[in-house]
Predict the structure.
Amino acid sequence: MLDLLAGFVGELRAAGLPVSLTENIDAMDAVRHVALDDREGLRTAMAATMVKRPEHRPAFDAVFDSFFALAPSTLGDEGEDLVSLLEETLRSGDEEAVRRLARLAVARLAGMEEGRGVRGSAYVFKTLRLLDVDGALARLLAGSTWLERDDLAAAGERLRGEVEAEVRRRLVAERGPQAVARSVRRPLPEDVDFLHASGEDLAALHRALRPLARRMAARLARRRRHGRHGRLDFRRTLRRSLSTGGVPADPRFRRPHPHKPEIVVLADVSGSVATFARFTLQLVHALAGEFSAVRTFVFIDGIDEVTRLFDRSDDVGTALARVHEEADVVAADGHSDYGRALSAFWARWGREITPRTSVVILGDARNNYHASHAEALAEVRRRARRVWWLNPEPRSYWDTGDSIVSEYARHCSGVFECRNLRQLEAFVSQIG
Amino acid sequence: MAERFASTAEVRAGLAGVEYLADEATAGVVFLADRLDKPVLVEGPAGTGKTELAKSVARWAGSRLVRLQCYEGLDESKALYEWNYRKQLLRIQAGEGADASWAELEDDIFTEEFLLPRPLLEAIRADEPVVLLIDEVDRVEVETEALLLEVLSDWQVSVPEMGTVSATRIPLVFLTSNGTRDLSEALKRRCLYLHLDYPSVEREREIVLARVPELPAHLAGEVARIVRSLRLLDLRKPPSVSETLDWARTLVLLGVDALDAEVTESTLHVLLKHRADIAAAARELKTAG
């Protein structure tokens, strides 16, 4: 058992969960109070002692299910028609029925054979595709009400989970827990790379974004209120000193003037970096209350202001969807041209930049071998308080091919690698 | 080891007895907290029953509930203890005529009699079983969090003038947090972690039935489904469990018999507190029937 637990904790750490030594010991302690055959009790005990962030829970569950998998059970295949069974099950959403269906489907459709080094996720994908879950959902969704739609979606989600569990169960029996845990490992939401995120990762990112924004808004607000010493108020200090015989024993300070920074965001929204721009804009707008003003510009090779789109709608998602339709971002051929966009920005909006403005540029600086026009950025830098550049590419890719980051970097206060939420959070908390 | 509870199942049944429907994980963590003598950090969205959990455990176990409500600017004198200065002054003045030495006087004025215990010290010193609830711990500053560490890991409070006060019996401790900021690793490490999320449709239905028994059973299911679907919309403030219960009570008062789009829309303001949210929900109700 101890070996199993040690392997388990090792795998958790490999998946990126920060499990400290004391937490590990606590887990061992907690496990002693759980009956050995109580699988869910074991899960609770380990999660309560080792997982202290809700975002990490899915990763924990994936590892747990590999290490403490139920034995594959024998199943009574009565030769039912899967298609009608599927529709019936989705409609009822009944837990038992879903589990049974998942087992039947994996047994018949996944085509799992021993000794093939296929990734677990491939079997899951294959089963769901052959079963045509999406098709069945679409058929059932037609003419359903709002509530039924969500019932169906929940049932579909449950089925997906059960199929995954069944595949994992069979794989564990064949390959052992460690190998399986490794083959289903997914990055934690805060480590998901913006440029290579799958649809599922994006959903996780999206869920993580709102609590993150709330946390950061609280942090920015708190920092403005605290830990600021105003300048010495000479007049009041002198006046006070009269009562101590002219000795300034009790210095007085001016009240700090909490000023909120003004933010101008320039985002490259061309295909390659669109996801990154989307998340960053979403975060910045969720934090809008913490800045005195947020202005948003988007560009590909033309540049346009879209602040009004964000102001008008409450939902940043819909605003972003409209950006491409309403904003005038393509001037020539629709390939990123930073030089052209920057000089257009400087020519049209340059005088609106003040010493209170912080400019944030989002993009990979892949200029498709156009002229850099770095002098426009230099002008911007001269007027603005700060110019930051966030690059979603790994540092090692910078300045390779058509990337000209360092040419622009000379005119920035800082260039940051910003590949995931963790790095984005670190950046935003420093500009407050 | 305290051993107040025999098993997870007992915790679950006991909490159900005081009308708190805990799921398996919640009951399991409460059980472990008792066995391991560790505080429980309960995190989750507002209105999912975090505070209620501590209250219910106290009610069921017949313990006294000691509550420390956290806020920005909370300090030692409000959380741990404070000396009763006025009483100390009186004591000094009353003793002025007598010929007591300073040392005697000092011994005298720094005693139990002049100590004002605040929630943390009170919970540590209590002779009877207590449940300590440290509510909204994410509101205090990181520096103040450190105050809690000694209490929560060693179950003692140091009063420099008197020495260390240790717990006679270790209280059950619940810390709640809405997650407005990350708590320090040191605090998290000392706690068992429980994330209370919005309940599933089935469980919410049971909660509604338990807390609002006047509501017809078929409506309870509908209520739970509608609330679930509302939470799936991208709202500023999704409806909490307590708001679900308020809504159920509203429906009872209105004598509603069947939930249609019209009734739902006219009572949405009980569930949703932002104008934009209400508009979004109403739009959804109209388009999808």
